[in-house]
């Protein structure tokens, strides 16, 4: 078998009966989860001081593996008709969301070696946590989430637009009600948006709050509207998951004698 084609089969999600690809997937999944654990443990100062060298070595090994996987995908993808063309096909693959995640998973490690002062970009090393998103290509349950989001995208876009409109209106109303009484707190409509977000999402941190009668009156109405408005996406997604699960069950074919799933 062609080496490039076999490489593509291995790095892609394992098909039934392909043991090499299955073992590759398992090793990669374990490595991803260990990386997430390492990132979490590395944020503990005492553990970082004690096991810092080990965590750095593990980071190096992980980046080498993930880098080789990324390069292997780009190299072997041209065997697929969808990615034909040495440059255009590979570019099309590289722009896929999962490949962008793969790149972000290894990019922070290489930043210090660019040859310029990147101390201000050290926070980008937190992007290592996106390695857990690489798990998405191996779990059908995550594919179900994508399916639901795509099926309900129009409803979600509509409710998101309504929430954005309500956010702007709420911030504008409270700004005009409270600006004169609290010019330092409600200094502008963008500054008041923080209050609107905290109120509409029912978080209510209490760092910003109205003191005038009109401000309290409109804030009460906005808080009640927020409960209903921000519950809409939850209901839409809940209904979408129920529909998707029922459809999945309907697509299954079971043996009438033993009850086992045929496909």
Summarize the structure.
By secondary structure, this protein is an all-alpha fold. The chain has helices at residues 3-11, 19-42, 45-76, 88-94, 97-110, 140-151, 153-178, 189-200, 213-229, 232-251. The protein contains 10 helices and no strands.
Write structural notes for this entry.
- With 263 residues, the chain is mainly α.
- The protein has two domains: 3-138, Four Helix Bundle (Hemerythrin (Met), subunit A), CATH 1.20.120.350; 151-247, Helix Hairpins, CATH 1.10.287.
- The protein has ten helices and no strands.
- The longest helix has 32 residues, at 45-76.
- It is extended.
- The two termini are 29 Å apart.
- Mean pLDDT is 80; it is low at 115-124.
Work out the helix count. Answer: 10
Q: What fraction, in percent, of the residue positions are helical?
A: 55-70%
Question: What does the overall shape look like?
Answer: extended
What series of H and E elements makes up the topology?
A: HHHHHHHHHH
Known CATH architecture of the largest domain: Up-down Bundle
Q: What is the count of β-strands? A: 0
| First-residue to last-residue Cα separation | 29 Å
Q: Looking at this structure, what is the CATH superfamily of the largest domain?
A: Voltage-gated potassium channels. Chain C
CATH T-level fold name of the largest domain: Four Helix Bundle (Hemerythrin (Met), subunit A)
**Approximately how much beta-strand content do the residues carry?**
under 5%
Low-confidence stretches: 115-124
Radius of gyration: 25 Å
CATH class of the largest domain: Mainly Alpha
Output mean pLDDT: 80
Largest sheet: none
Structural class: mainly alpha
Instruction: Compute the number of structural domains.
Output: 2
